[in-house]
Amino acid sequence: MNEIENVPAHAKGEFPTRKGRFLKWVGRVGLRLFGGWKINGQMPDVKKAIIPIAPHTSNWDFPVGVFVMLALGLKLNYLGKASLFRFPIKGLMLKLGGIPIDRSAANGVVGKMVSEFESQNELILVITPEGTRKKVQQWKKGFLHMAKQANVPIIPVAMDFARKAIDIGPAVMVAGEIEKELERVKSFFAHAQGKRAEYS
To answer: Which of these, 4, 61, 161, 175, is most buried using a 10 Å CB contact count?
Structure first.
């Protein structure tokens, strides 16, 4: 992977943020109530990127992630099955940045998101590369293909329940072979322990 200076012009810019002090307060209070989570590092100056978050071992990952997003005032998006975007939670999911995905679509998820990155002025997509809360031997590589084809950086974010810490990594570009790039991305998360340590 290349360093941040190789981020293309179309992805550079101010990181998308949400307005409102109240939401930031809600986020900070939520992190305290969940055990006093700390955030290490900061988001780079990019307006388009993919954020892989790991390890993903519990449903509790989602509320912690939401509180982090609110506390930092970030405007993020995430993928969800289209069938989940129904009343009464559809409005909330969309408000939190949800993007409904039909996995049976002809162009597939990767193709749809590459098109989204090309058409949007700003888009920060959060991905859980393990694809499940259970222990897996292999991560899904779709996020790397998305990043490479859309020519946007990856910002790895580790969620370490052992330290109650969110670690934000440096923005990097996917330039080499996908398998090698996957191992480089995964190395950032080696220190992190999920809520269910046996699945980390």
So the answer is: 161
